[in-house]
């Protein structure tokens, strides 16, 4: 990646560049999502203004939030399991950073270009379940325990449809490498017309829907927010957390939303690329170097669009009951995603 | 596309008939109805029915003997009064503390402590009373019974009306009346360590003892004490 | 009569008790919801014994909002009592005063002039709309949907403006006097009411397709917390809870009372199922019905005085009277015993939510934890009404 | 353990921390009685929206709350629950007592089961009179609380002393310095003691629509 920018950066410069890049790629979208969607979009949906005092149009609200959460007293309940109680939020945030490693932002702008990128992010995605379960168990509070167990059941139940939905994409792109998937989408053509590329959202629409529903469940958001059901279990596994630990949970929740939106845009909307025909490229190697800079901007717009949908559903839907949620996943989503794979495979072989 | 009404994960789909149209409201109960009810009750519980008072076309009060308090409930339930309204008690002794609104400077005249029962009379200081309604004939009945002063215990209504459970718990903690046959006679409202029964007339309201009610000015006689007939001009 | 799930939970509770002392099994967990909990409207505490996610036995513990109304009414004069009692059901608070005033008027054998009766009925229905519209919005929050409550508050403000315009208080008006009303309606109030009623009917349609049309909402409400008619009668349920179990009983139509409901024709909605869905659905239809009642009555306000001849210091003659009306929460009645002096001798307040909630130990047996919140939301209680 | 309880904070940093604390107040829904509906109208309705002031009514557990608005009648049975929930809140916490029931028992002043005023249980920063107070009155209470937080002396707050503003402590120190050598004298001369803050300057709890506003 660095060599493409036609300037030689020593190795320690590269690692600093990667660390800063990683932080920006995770925290900036999280901050943007919290401000844009949680404060502003929710308020406008509810016909009110949202924070306006801190800075023009409440733009400094995030600074105020972080500043305040730093000053809060850090309470750990006495019969809680102290070390594990303190580690739990970091584990949840850890899985977000691990996910961003494999997301490509440009032909060379990717932290680690694995050949089995899809396999990697599906495996790493389930680390946050551990964090939530630890948080639920360690905070020695009945509500947290109930919330943690519900989260474990739900996240496992919804990882399966996500895996099967991505399987459809992998079959169609014949590769697990994310850059290759983007290349296939942008060079493909629909009935000969190459101007729009072949984003998998068109051919894999059922897979896209199942993936988005599974993402909604992975983030424990509204229709599936049984683990943090305010009206029943006070605030689920986050009940006992205060101060900057709660801030880490809060940021992790929205950062994961951003990262999953990145991945969804890579898999279904053609990631950082625009249809290659517009610039006369034929494959990934002859994409110009400036795409490494424009790529992240395109990815950001697609990500904000997808997160907009996720948050829109979050703020307007009531929540499932626990058993309905499980039956919806096992008895409905998984069979449909299996059918989707079968159809893709048959079409793959036939055409 | 998603067939949500399937019974597998939506609990069994129940009937979707919107409404049953209300038939014409029955004729409002006339006078004969309440006499009929009292006679019917007299047949069911015999001379336990001590006194009855009918407000024509309006209301019906009945007083029964204490020991047949529980089977009056059963009798009325079979007679059609299926809807349980409430159950509570009245302490007929006038409050020895007055209203706490008297002008402290003026010498207080003694309060007559004679116990005078209400509509259907009665001998004892405490009376337990309940109300049932017949939803089809749109008529309500209030049943009273004396509570013996020495041992304030009556039978419980939970046998025929499960709804009386909470009402009797509240009556127990407020008036100190025991209900034998009641499943668990704990305190309903007051915290466990609250001693005394607040609704008894001899339970003082301490705040009023310590600090008389600030609005005493209301009690003074008006500058021109108008007689009854000239009363309404300035209201 | 008990549904199969309730039998199952009964067997489960026996098993759970047996298991408590057997070390191998996981013993049941006692969950304490409240007294301060986002779902309970205020301070109701529910003690529930769970076996996993299923409730074996649940019992609400009331008393956290007990302010001792009946004792306080004994040391106050009649006008002071009306100020106090409109804080019992603090959402539709004008509706609390009306039965007490009617009971006092019945004892004094006087009747409010026709104009006062019509205005009283209109304000009664307005406070019902203000009460139940917040219920419809709050229903969403209990289920997890955040947005409907804002719509409810937004449209409820219009109704509060009307009540404040007429009475001066947003929702503790204290506008009733024995023998009539404090004073007359302000100018322009009538056509403003007409516009607001159109807006409120629009609000009902909006909530109907936002919430009631939502599949998740239906799947969480249908078939949950079924209460058969005879159990409802035995516990003394009233209002929409009773009508949801198929009992066609509405005090506004079935009782001869000094309010002018006979001037408006309205439909009494019932539903045969008796589950949480039926209760909420009936309240939605009743809100629309109330808007129509107000629209009809607003045309027929007769001219004339608003207050009859009443002596300056009111002494209610000796006697006892019980008057109850169809309050937003159910049937609310006052049993007033008067000994002919300034204040009442004893006032028994029959509040609707006390009976409505006394059925929860029966109905919560064998349900899941999230269903506790659904059933309590559909029974719709106000803490001041339970604890008095 | 917060960052600021040990050493002295330079003024601009305190200003920044105060500013951030006042603009991001997370409030815990603590509705008790009728004032809860007016609080709901203030916190959760589009007309008197409080989120535009930076007060976010999101948290469902006391652990994440900054300030709490006790709205409604506190009965004797509820008092221990109020106390426990107040202690569960992390440290820089504030309280608004809304409605005359919470301020002093209100219309139930003579009831046998009502606590006469919630300030017997928890320290209150702002009193909002009214029964129920209009949502605008509550918003004014929130704004006054924000003003109070903006010029608050963090150190005194962390040490748990009585609330003092930044200016008051600075004035006390100057008073101390100008009153000559430190007071560790053997013969304790009253005149060299730090002059107590004059009564007028001592910040009173704010009462909406009355009382001093610093």
Task: Offer a few descriptive terms.
heterotetramer, A: 351 residues, mainly alpha, 12 helices, 0% strand, globular, B: 235 residues, 4 helices, disordered C terminus
Folded structure, characterized:
The complex is a heterotetramer of chains A (351), B (235), C (388) and D (214). Chain A is mainly alpha-helical and 351 residues long. Chain A has helices at residues 11-45, 61-71, 82-100, 117-124, 127-138, 142-173, 178-187, 200-203, 205-218, 243-269, 291-316, 322-350. Chain A has one domain. Helices cover 65% and strands 0% of the residues of chain A. The two termini of chain A are 36 Å apart. The mean pLDDT of chain A is 86. Residues 1-29 and 225-235 of chain B have low confidence and may be disordered. With 235 residues, chain B is of the alpha/beta class. Chain B has a 5-stranded mixed beta sheet with strand order 1-2-5-4-3. Chain B has a two-stranded parallel sheet with strand order 6-7. The termini of chain B are far apart. In chain B, 18% of the residues lie in helices and 20% in strands. In chain B, strand 4 (126-134) and strand 5 (139-147) form a beta hairpin. Chain C is of the alpha+beta class and 388 residues long. Chain C is 50% helix and 12% strand. Chain C is globular and about 70 Å long. With 214 residues, chain D is an alpha/beta fold. Helices cover 35% and strands 10% of the residues of chain D. Chain D is built from 7 helices and 6 strands; from the N terminus they run αβαββαβαβαααβ. A 6-stranded parallel beta sheet of chain D has the order 2-1-3-4-5-6. In chain D, helix 1 (11-23) runs antiparallel to helix 5 and helix 2 packs across helix 5. The longest helix of chain D is centred in the middle third of the chain and has 16 residues, at 135-150. The radius of gyration of chain D is 19 Å and the shape is globular. Chains in contact: A-B, A-C, A-D, B-C, B-D, C-D.
Compact description:
The complex is a heterotetramer of chains A (351), B (235), C (388) and D (214). Chain C is α+β, with helices and mostly antiparallel strands.
What is the strand and helix layout of this fold?
The complex is a heterotetramer of chains A (351), B (235), C (388) and D (214).
Chain A lengths: L10 H35 L15 H11 L10 H19 L16 H8 L2 H12 L3 H32 L4 H10 L12 H4 L1 H14 L24 H27 L21 H26 L5 H29 L1
Helix pairs in contact in A: 1-10, 1-11, 2-10, 3-5, 3-10, 5-6, 6-9, 6-12, 7-10, 9-10, 10-11
Chain B lengths: L30 H15 L3 E7 L3 E6 L4 H10 L4 E9 L34 E9 L4 E9 L5 E3 L8 H12 L2 E3 L25 H5 L25
Parallel strand pairs in B: 2-5, 6-7
Antiparallel strand pairs in B: 1-2, 3-4, 4-5
Chain D lengths: L10 H13 L1 E4 L5 H11 L10 E2 L10 E5 L7 H9 L6 E5 H6 L21 E3 L6 H16 L3 H6 L6 H13 L27 E2 L7
Parallel strand pairs in D: 1-2, 1-3, 3-4, 4-5, 5-6
Helix pairs in contact in D: 1-5, 2-5
